[in-house]
Amino acid sequence: MSKLFTKETQAIFWNNNKSAIQRMLDYDYTISRETPSVAAIVAPTSNNKFEKFFYGPDEVMISVYKSTAEAAQAFPNADVLLNFASFRTAYDVTMEAIEIKGQFKTIMVTAEGIPERLARKMNQTARDSGVTVIGPATVGGIAPGAFKIANVGGTITNIVNSKLHRAGSCGLVTRSGGLFNELSNIIAINADGIAEGVAIGGDRFVGSVFIDNLLRMEENPDVKYMLLLGEVGGTEEYKVIDAVKSGKIKKPIIAWCIGTIAKQFSSGVQFGHAGASANADAETAEAKNRAMAEVGIHVPESFNDLPATINEVYEELRAKGVITDIEEPELKIVPKVRRAKEFICTISDDRGDEATYAGFPISSVATPDTGKGIGDVISLLWFKKQYPKWASEFIETVLKTVADHGPAVSGAHNAKVTARAGKSVVESLVTGLLTIGPRFGGAIDGAAKYFKYADDNNLSPKEFLGYMKKEGVPIPGIGHRIKSLRNPDLRVEGLKKFAKGNFPSTPLLDYALTVEQLTTSKKDNLILNVDGTIGILMVDMWRALGYSESEIEDFIESGTLNAFFIVGRSIGFIGHVLDEKRLGMPMYRHPMDDILYNVEKAEEL
Amino acid sequence: MAQRAIREYDGKAIFSKHWEKYFSGFHYGFKSVLVTSGQELLDKAQEHGFEWLKQEALVAKPDMLFGKRGKNDLVLFKSSKPGDVTLEEAAAWIDAKMAVTTTLLTGQHGHLTHFIVEPFTPHSQEQEYYISATTVGEDDVLYMSAEGGMEVEEGWDEKVNEVTIPINMSDADMEHAVRAKVPSDISSSDKEAFTSFAIQFFRFYRDLNFAYLEINPIVMLENNNMAILDLVARLDDTAGFMMVDEWGEIEYPTAFGMEDQSPEEKAIAEADSKSGASLKLTILNPLGRIWTMVAGGGASVVYADTIADLTGDVSQLANYGEYSGGPTTGETKFYADTLIDLMTRTPDAEGRDKILIIGGAIANFTDVAKTFTGIIQSFEENIEKMREHNIQVYVRRGGPNYEKGLKDIKEAADRLGLYIEVYGPQTHVTDIVRMALEK
User: Fold this and answer.
1) Which candidate in B242, B364, B423, B426 is best for mutational testing of the A interface (most A CBs within 10 A)?
2) Distance from A302 to chain B by nearest Cα, in Å?
3) Contact (Cβ atoms closer than 8 angstroms) between residue A53 and residue A119
4) Range with the lowest mean pLDDT among A55-64, A264-273, B299-308?
5) How would residue B259 be classed by pLDDT, with cut points 50, 70 and 90?
6) What secondary structure letter does DSSP report for A335?
7) Is residue B151 pLDDT above 70, yes or no?
8) Binding-face residues of A in 76-95 toward B, CB within 8 A
9) What mean pLDDT comes out for the span B211-223?
10) Is the pLDDT of residue B406 over 80?
11) A560-583 vs A425-433: helix axis angle to the nearest 10?
């Protein structure tokens, strides 16, 4: 891997750090990336499914997951993890990410002050697994024109001023994150910007060290020379010196260690980072600067002379033709004022010539010659997918099956009473619809939920019955007023027959039928009823269509099953309302002899 | 700061707390007290559980992070012969030591304030061993020697065996590695016990997040009784959040001989502890001519470096410090007030102007205009003093909203009649130091 990041690199961002993510997307827009550099966000305590961000003048949605594993599964190509967890959890987050084999090539850890022993374990485990850790205690790194980590580079204005929007020819490695920006600026002014840059982090134990980054940059053809900003303390710079001596690094290096002042104070003053404290003469900034100069590394007289040294090396490489002039790319300008959209629509669009359902013009699904039915329209508008014929036909079968069940059921009764009070179709209809809930129509939801739970947990029919008894709930979808095994409900038979003949498989129905065997052995009419059959077969349909179990649970939770009942039964309710209008029935008053009056005088308290 | 030294007493208290769990088969009495006066020692002896202070011969020594207490003649273990120190003698000795300034062989000097008092442990030189562990590079290293006390320090290379233990080494491999390196000159009667102790010692050091742990000497007495005669320990304080119960109440004392912080440094440290931003101040030379108010940890170092480089030494540099991480306007004003107050107390000895460097790299997210508002407010309040000391201000900064920040501070200084030069990201970060010195 000669380059840390490319223009295709995508990251999973651990922690919903909105401003840092927005800065990444602003950068993406500016350099015209095709995909956002943040593929997904992990936020364990968030209940949001996505988060909105600006992408230039528009907005995009980035998915939010509760765990790294879920995000990784959804975005197998996102090979960078930006770990913005606190020092308390950063270790666990990194270790969990390394465990997801083959997913992450680079993990950046921003927390400062991770316990040293944990940091060492984390770094070593990453090395053993071939994962590059940037940090801890870092702002990250950047591959200009390709991928930028979080806040590196600061504001977009500064990024452009420091030429961080397109690749230059310097490879930059620093410990300090604060000076990273500054050096990018110095290199932009005195040379042509950087090709790749990493701030390795200020803690004592960091994952990738100077030499790791410089060796990679040696292989990166875009990098023509390197700049290393070291610090008093530690011996990492000597590994670079050895690599230069042995010829492993041939590209020119400019280097400076900050903290030369530390030698002037015997003890007590901590200059800079936790890692910055010289334990021996060789660890002083001065000794390291001298040793680097001795092997031919370009070391300026002082930090103040660094710009001149950069310019010298750059001009020399230009004169040799190693560095050629860069054509400045066109930049997209992020608008200064942007307004977040109040509403989001992901199912239909009326902005073009013709309104569409999930991308399909209405005319392409409306008329009979399109071959599309109402089931197809539902699959587009409810699920944003084109369901196969068997599934959309099943949906239509369900709608037709539940359309009406006579005038006596409470919803129809309410609709009729309201119509007779002189109310309009819509008022009468919603009165009926408002009756739909846990006791009326809700068995579809309940059956899907409980049977799925029992099947997922491999409960035997007997265990399932025991479980429901403990819950204190009669099993939804089981039982009928008059129908029994000997006198079956033909609607149920029809649904089962359709499913057996058309579904690829019906595992939940098969399970439900074993439950039915047990319940009917107790009482003849405890059969799988029409509500239960619909709920269970919907789960089987979604499973066969490839939805994950958690997606199916979300459907159940959000009331999708009820929605089928609502749509279907609306047909019947409207029928009853129109029937009332047609008959011109008067206002209904319930007969008093049908009411048990039992009113006692209120006690005084 | 990550690795911090703790008192010998606290180190022993941690041992004692976890002894049963880690050192099965060995016994440790933990008879130690930490006192800050002779009277406190006498009072302690009256408490239940500390009767031994009256019954046994005692050893007393300062517990203030420095070593070589024996060589500095700061260990009381005899009045006429070893092992005859009484409670009253120990208390009197402590008071006498506290009354005078103590100068160590290293030249550090100060007042002794904390003492550890323990029973005198009669033993022979053969019973003394050395053991320690720390982190070297990326690995842990365990050091063991058959000789304890001062002897081991005098012949380190010949007398000490090292075991390198990589971070992810399994316990079985660690035990094998330690076993293989136990010094051969440990007497055969003690060898098995020492090996077992060394393995447990390493686990203890590792699990309790020590950064450094040394017992010199550890004395192996009869019946697997262990005496920890001298202990040096540093903790990795970043692990503190996981070790709340394991460590108990831990204090991180300042090293002996370190001058106490000035009230101004303390005030800044206090403001720092209450803020999400970072405020740091160290006064290097209160009479210095060049004062720095620099944003950012890395930048503060390069400014200090550059001042030393360009002036040839550090005599002119008055302070070191930083403000960063998005401090509020109020916090920035307080920091500026403190610096201006300090730099206007005494005129320069050679009658030169004083220089205030308001420096900083290009900020990632700190709002430059907002922080500069705090500095401007401080200028307005302190302008009389600043004029009196001919303070020359040099500003260099970049980052969010820097144009407005630079414009505001320039206008304010001009309005107040203050000499100022103002530069942005186009000027090299430390170049204002050169400009200030050349003027």
Assistant:
1) B364
2) 7
3) no
4) A264-273
5) low
6) P
7) yes
8) 87-88
9) 94
10) yes
11) 140
As a whole number of angstroms, the distance between CA B413 and CA B408 comes to 9
Domain identity same for B237 and B386: no
pLDDT at residue B239 in the model: 95
> Can you say how many angstroms the Cα of residue B87 is from the centroid of all Cα atoms in its chain?
32
Among B94, B119, B144, the domain-final residue is: B119
Q: Do B341 and B211 fall within a single domain? A: no
Residues B97, B173 within the same domain: no
Mutation target vs A (from B4, B234, B238, B313; most A CBs, 10 A cutoff): B238
Chain B residues touching A268 at Cβ < 8 A: 255, 258
Region A520-545 average pLDDT: 94
Does A271 contact B at CB distance below 8 Å?
yes
Question: CA dihedral in degrees (A7, A10, A11, A12; nearest 10)?
Answer: 160
Collapsed DSSP state (helix, strand, coil) of residue A37:
coil
User: Crossing angle of helices A507-522/A443-456, nearest 10°?
Assistant: 100
pLDDT recorded at residue B437: 94
Give the mean pLDDT of chain A: 93
CB of B141 within 8 Å of a chain A CB? The answer is no
Residue B252 included in any domain? no
What tokens were used for B113? 């304030």
Tell me the whole-structure pTM to 2 decimals. Answer: 0.83
Smallest Cβ–Cβ distance between B361 and the set A117, A179, A260 belongs to: A179
Chain A touched by B135 (CB under 8 Å):
yes
Indicate the helix (H) or strand (E) that contains A22. helix A18-30
pLDDT average, residue stretch B421-430: 95
Residue labelled with tokens 């390795």: A200
Q: Both tokens of residue A376?
A: 């197809």
Both structure tokens of A102? 């083959």
| Structural domain contains residue B256 | no
Q: Select which of A273, A298, A480, A576 is catalytic.
A: A273
d(CA A207, CA A136): 7
Instruction: Say if B253 falls within a structural domain.
Output: no
Sheet of A50-55, strand order: A50-55, A58-65, A38-42, A11-14, A80-83, A106-109, A132-134
Domain end marker among B83, B102, B119? B119
Residue A304 and residue B427: Cα distance in Å, rounded? 11
pLDDT score of A275: 52
Residue range A133-173, pLDDT digits in tens: 999 999 999 999 999 999 998 888 889 999 999 999 999 99
**Helix residue spans in A403-442 (DSSP H):** 410-420, 425-433
CATH number at residue B299: 3.40.50.261
SS3 B118: strand
Residue B43: inside a domain = yes
Domain boundaries, position B422: 261-438
CA distance A448 to chain B (A): 45
Query: Tens digits of per-residue pLDDT, A539-567?
Result: 999 999 999 998 999 999 999 998 999 99
Mean pLDDT of B335-346: 96
Contacts of B258 in chain A (CB under 8 A): 268
Contact A502, A447 (CB under 8 A): no
Q: Which residues of B touch A285 (CB under 8 A)?
A: 305
Length, in residues, of chain A:
605
Neighbour tally for B236: CB within 10 Å = 23
Class of residue A605 by CB neighbours under 10 A (exposed 0-12, middle 13-18, buried 19+): exposed
Handedness of CA B63, B64, B68, B72 (dihedral sign): negative
Number of domains in chain B: 3
Strands lying side by side in the sheet with A141-143: A147-148, A141-143, A194-199, A170-174, A225-231, A253-258
What are the E-state strand segments in A203-303? Answer: 225-231, 253-258
Contact B365 A186 (CB under 8 A): no
The CB density around residue A45, as the number of other CB atoms within 10 Å, is 6
Is A480 assigned a catalytic role? no
